[in-house]
Predict the structure.
Amino acid sequence: MRDLEDRLHALAASIDVPPTSPHDDLVRGRRRRRRHQWTAAGSALAAASVVVALAWGGGGTRAEPVGPADRSSSTEAPTDRAQDPEVDALSSDRQLHDVLVDRLGLESTYPYRFSFQPSYDRLGRVDMLVPTVVVRDDRTGEVGEVSARVSRSWGATEWREFSCHPGCATYELDGRVVEVGRYANQWGWATQREDGTVVVLLLPQPAAAMGIDRVQVDAVLRDVWLPDAVDEDAAWHARMLERGLWHFMVGRDSVVTGDLADATGPTVVASSSIGGMVAGEVRWEGELLATAPTGCPAGFRCEVRDIEDTAFTFRWIEGGEHDGWVWVEHDGPRVRSRVLLEPWGDGVSVPLERVAGLLTDPFWQDLAPSQSVTTG
């Protein structure tokens, strides 16, 4: 991971591009571990074309039918976003951004933008938020990020993998140890509070150079929080996206991503990218076998094929706006997983062996009834 990031930044440094906001420069690296990749500001996106933009799946039902078959969801129609538990994560992220500005006396260079998809635990609670404030160095004009990683565990923050730990300097705050030192090329403080919340504060420069003292740092470590509301829709969507990135982002291939504020619902709707070129739409979702239809529905041409000695059902859409698109499906012990692929060139938008890897991933069998997309 670090080697890839180093190469991207080296490539970006050699290219003269106009300044853009860190939100627009959001880069997702390849997901090779069960975690969410950190956002990266700068010109790496323009240089490497790793990530472009994402159209996310909506709340409970698909916004438009795909193919002649009647497609609906087992969940109720989406409610007003103001009543959606996901608002808790968005609202908390904004409030934590304001806590950083207030406690550290920062002046934000850009307006607030929600730019890091929250991760969720198995209970559907937000597992980590990463509020970020973009600041400018008055002396050099350089732009940097002040961020906090607020999590329910050390592992999600990656402090212990990439910081001075276990050789950091330490001091005590409210009876808990605070570690102080470098995290990659940033200056950081990290602690686990008595309630179990892990807080990591990262600065682009030493605190003294930014006019920040220890009292201000301690205020952040004490005052940030995570919401406890359960959001099953957003949690399942985040898990599907993570597993999709794990399987699809290999070599020159990636998945097009973007507006993180809408990351919820039972279907991930994205686009694939091959060598920096958008190669067509791709969707993935699951359905409980108890409701999954048998046989080949009208309006489709169906065929069973083996990929790496495992059987998959191919359902080509015949006629209509999505003529020639294909659903690839796999039946597990209790869930039918499926991926929709747009034709691209002489094939499809994602290599079939990677589609097979996603469809046979064991995580599908954890599908909750509320996240099952029925095709009856």
User: Anything to note?
Assistant: The chain has eight helices and 17 strands. The domain at 52-78+231-371 is CATH 3.40.1000 (Protein Transport Mog1p; Chain A). The two ends are 42 Å apart (CA to CA).
